[in-house]
Amino acid sequence: MTAPALTVRGATRRFGARLAVDGVDLDLRGGRITALLGASGCGKSTLLRMIAGLEPMDGGSIHAEGRLLADAAHSTPPEARGVGLVFQDYALFPHLNVAGNVAFGLKDRPRAERLRVALEWLETVHLADRADAWPHMLSGGEQQRVALVRALARRPHTVLLDEPFSGLDRHLKSEVRQTLMGALRAAGAAVLMVTHDAEEALLMADDLALMDKGRILQTGVPEEAYLRPVSPAAARLLGEAELLAAEVRAGMATTAFGPMPAPGAPDGPAWVMIRPGDAFVSTEGAAATVVDVAFGGPFIEVKVHAAGQTLRLRTTGSPPSIGEAIRVALDADRVRLYPRA
Ligand SMILES: Nc1ncnc2c1ncn2[C@@H]1O[C@H](COP(=O)(O)OP(=O)(O)OP(=O)(O)O)[C@@H](O)[C@H]1O
């Protein structure tokens, strides 16, 4: 793998007694999109702002391309970091037209060249024909695309995106996402995208960093993080996850919904983490009672009860009735086991 374009080591930021960012390590690589995923208030924006140079560091360091950008004693000004930042609200200059916005960061070049380069960048996001428009004449998705190429035109080694799609409706989101990803990959910069949307992170990212209470819980490719979360907290960040109490003995975990293999797990209390698709109705399964049924569009969500525990599972076809006795099995290849204190 290529050397990181930007490295964060031990990044720490305190607000009074509160540790908003608590010893974070992160590597960002050129041409790869890293999604920083975490719940509201976990410290994502503060970390992003530290990398951008908008927030001081209380501890740790940030290096890019072999040079120190910041530590507790030193801070390179934001404009000298080679880091581009795209805000949630696009923040286009209202007094400049679209081409002027993109050309803004190219001040060191002759005027004609600035315009030519701006048009080339606008082409990459299919907006060259709107070069003369004013920002207020554009849709949210178009403004977001202009904001991105304005950042990319300066050829940053790293681009930071703060919730880039949160202002867009669902239909626009996937369209803008495709265009933006194409432009980002073509630019070859390292990208860090902050989001609290698990689906967006899974769909867009080459690498994921899961953040909780100021710390990075796990980094890795999306599939690995989704299928093998390091903890229940990491599992929950990536989608619905239920915990069932279990007892492990001699490599078998016993749950209210039947036994499952637990090779190598120590004897004692454990949690079994189950995603909605990992439990299913099966004639071979454990006896359970249906306590709730909900229509979910492509699936039916069924809540079942057994030995004092409840579990949600998904099924298709005709829905069972409340009170009905059914049998439920767990997909042993997909469920995960964690120690229970
Ligand atoms: N300038 C500040 N002064 C005091 N506390 C702050 C400041 N900025 C952030 N915090 C606190 O630090 C913590 C982390 O905030 P941050 O904005 O980084 O979280 P976040 O994960 O980006 O949340 P969101 O997704 O809601 O934007 C929060 O508890 C927040 O209240």
From TrEMBL:
Residues covered by the ABC transporter domain: 6-238
Keyword Iron: yes
InterPro entries according to UniProt: AAA+_ATPase, ABC_SmlMolc_Importer, ABC_transporter-like_ATP-bd, ABC_transporter-like_CS, ABC_transpr_FbpC, Mo/tungstate-bd_C_term_dom, P-loop_NTPase, Transp-assoc_OB_typ2
GO biological process: quaternary ammonium group transport
Keywords tagged on the record: ATP-binding, Cell membrane, Ion transport, Iron, Iron transport, Membrane, Nucleotide-binding, Transport
GO molecular function: ABC-type ferric iron transporter activity; ATP binding; ATP hydrolysis activity
Any single Gene Ontology cellular-component annotation: ATP-binding cassette (ABC) transporter complex
Keyword Cell membrane: yes
Alphabetical list of PANTHER family matching this protein: SPERMIDINE/PUTRESCINE IMPORT ATP-BINDING PROTEIN POTA, SPERMIDINE_PUTRESCINE IMPORT ATP-BINDING PROTEIN POTA
Protein's recorded name: Fe(3+) ions import ATP-binding protein FbpC 2
Organism for this UniProt entry: Brevundimonas mediterranea
